């Protein structure tokens, strides 16, 4: 098995305990790598290395120089994209076709934010008080803890550290214990880019050990977390004890709304993309299909026919369309929710079990599953399954569609399928979600803010807006008057 070390203070190091844990290939079910089991001691070392770098060489670099390092990182990622893609496929079971596309796109986060590094400007205010010069400046928060999930480790890491570094912060990364290998491979590219020691650190380990120590560390100034809403709530609570800044990108139960005037073929592809791509392991999955009643049967029949032709199997095979579930606990959770849906009275019209195909033997697979006869009060419609499970809910009117769409504790994303642009605009205005797609689904960009309403999170990632999440705003007053006014009166 491949043996990895952690990246702390510009050095490759073992866990202080000397312990490691196995990382399993979701397709074979067999261990393939050993990951250091970091402890609170390792976290402390990493955070202190980041704090020292923040006070030292990193703070002395100009914004343009920081940007040049990010641009260099982007160039190197292009050269190492195949290794990173192959590592993620082996570590979390994502399709090689998707991972190669992601890794081709990934460098753009670092080149975009590298270009933004010296473009963040303060303002001069025409203050209403004579004899005062008033302006603002944006300064880095300090040490940022970046905690990433197992479903798209490197892409979601870029959402965090590209703007954090461009803003002048130092970072300690804690990847999921299920998918740490690609982040450690990424750290090798970081080393080649020439960032000063301690600017970026990677500590691996269990969430209850290394993760908890990181969010509680007094020298961490901000936590940026992606994961489930329950884990996000715990991170929020832990961070509040020391009043850390927090960004949370959490779960979703996103509605994908199809009106009767939608182009059927396009809607089918959009629904498939929304919930079955990445085996449904996506926070923005359109797992609630809301379909106008007059189109319900046609759309369901078309979806079932489409998905019966889909190929499951080896994610490293470019012809595979649906791969395994990334972790054993998640595999069990999805199957439990399928049982819950049946117990609630939903009708399974496709899938609903572990596939028996020989190419799926030994892996953590779940058949693409579609339930009809679902109401929005059922658990299967309200709770995040995070797997290839679609619930179909009919509606009669636009008003009812909006009501069902918003009747959820989440608000990460939504889709709308219609040829009526007036209706599309009305739906965009009324749906309470951070991203709304019209006649498409699952599109993203490093330029476009991403985040959620309600239990789907706090703050925004990507785009210029994300830079503000990693900066403090300082106001400065400079007196230009001769002498000081009465000290007992507010100036």
UniProtKB/TrEMBL annotation:
Keyword Oxidoreductase: yes
Keywords: Oxidoreductase
Oxidoreductase among keywords: yes
InterPro entries (UniProt xref): Ald_DH/histidinol_DH, Ald_DH_C, Ald_DH_CS_CYS, Ald_DH_CS_GLU, Ald_DH_N, Aldehyde_DH_dom
The protein's name in its UniProt record: Aldehyde dehydrogenase
Family label: Belongs to the aldehyde dehydrogenase family.
PROSITE patterns linked: ALDEHYDE_DEHYDR_CYS, ALDEHYDE_DEHYDR_GLU
Tree of life domain: Bacteria
GO molecular function, one term: oxidoreductase activity, acting on the aldehyde or oxo group of donors, NAD or NADP as acceptor
Active-site residues, Swiss-Prot/TrEMBL: 249
Species, as recorded: Verticiella sediminum
Entry's transmembrane regions: none
Coiled-coil features, chain-numbered ranges: none
Domain Aldehyde dehydrogenase: from-to ranges: 12-476
């Amino acid at each position: 098995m491949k043996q990895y070390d952690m990246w702390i203070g510009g050095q490759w190091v073992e866990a202080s305990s000397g312990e490691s844990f196995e990382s399993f290939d979701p397709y074979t079910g067999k261990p393939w790598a050993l990951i250091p089991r970091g402890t609170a001691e390792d976290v402390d070392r990493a955070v202190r290395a980041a704090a020292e770098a923040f006070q030292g060489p990193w703070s002395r670099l100009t914004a343009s120089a920081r940007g040049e390092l990010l641009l260099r990182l982007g160039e190197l990622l292009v050269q190492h994209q195949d290794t990173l893609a192959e590592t993620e496929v082996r570590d979390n079971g994502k399709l090689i076709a998707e991972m190669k596309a992601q890794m081709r796109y990934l460098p753009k986060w670092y080149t975009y934010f590298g270009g933004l590094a010296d473009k963040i400007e303060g303002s001069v205010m025409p203050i209403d008080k004579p004899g005062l010069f008033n302006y603002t400046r944006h300064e880095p928060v300090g040490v940022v803890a970046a905690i990433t999930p197992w479903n798209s480790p490197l892409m979601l890491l870029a959402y965090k550290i590209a703007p954090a570094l461009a803003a002048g912060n130092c970072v300690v990364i804690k990847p999921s214990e299920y998918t740490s290998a690609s982040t450690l491979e990424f750290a090798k590219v970081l080393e080649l880019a020439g960032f000063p020691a301690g600017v970026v650190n990677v500590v691996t380990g269990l969430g209850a050990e290394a993760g908890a120590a990181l969010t509680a560390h007094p020298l961490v100034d901000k936590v940026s977390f992606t994961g489930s809403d329950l884990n996000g709530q715990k991170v929020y609570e832990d961070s509040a004890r020391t009043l850390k800044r927090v960004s949370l990108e959490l779960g979703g139960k996103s509605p994908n709304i199809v009106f009767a005037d939608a182009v059927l073929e396009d809607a089918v592809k959009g629904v498939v993309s929304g919930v079955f791509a990445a085996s449904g392991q996506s926070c923005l999955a359109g797992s609630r299909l809301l379909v106008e009643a007059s189109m319900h049967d046609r759309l369901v029949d078309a979806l079932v026919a489409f998905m019966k032709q889909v190929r499951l199997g080896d994610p490293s095979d470019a012809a595979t369309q649906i791969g395994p579930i990334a972790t054993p606990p998640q595999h069990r959770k999805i199957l439990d929710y399928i049982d819950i849906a049946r117990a609630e009275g939903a009708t399974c019209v496709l899938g609903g079990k572990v596939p028996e195909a020989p190419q799926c033997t030994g892996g953590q697979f779940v058949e693409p599953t579609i339930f009809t006869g679902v109401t929005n009060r059922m658990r299967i419609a309200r709770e995040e399954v995070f797997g290839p499970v679609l619930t179909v809910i009919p509606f009669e009117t636009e008003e009812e569609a909006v009501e069902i769409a918003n009747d959820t504790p989440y608000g990460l994303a939504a889709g709308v399928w219609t040829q009526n642009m007036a209706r599309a605009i009305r739906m965009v205005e009324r749906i309470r979600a951070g991203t709304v797609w019209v006649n498409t689904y699952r599109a993203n960009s490093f330029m476009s803010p991403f985040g959620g309403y309600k239990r789907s999170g706090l703050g925004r990632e990507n785009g210029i807006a994300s830079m503000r999440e990693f900066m403090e705003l300082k106001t400065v007053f400079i007196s230009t008057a001769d002498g000081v006014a009465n000290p007992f009166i507010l100036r």
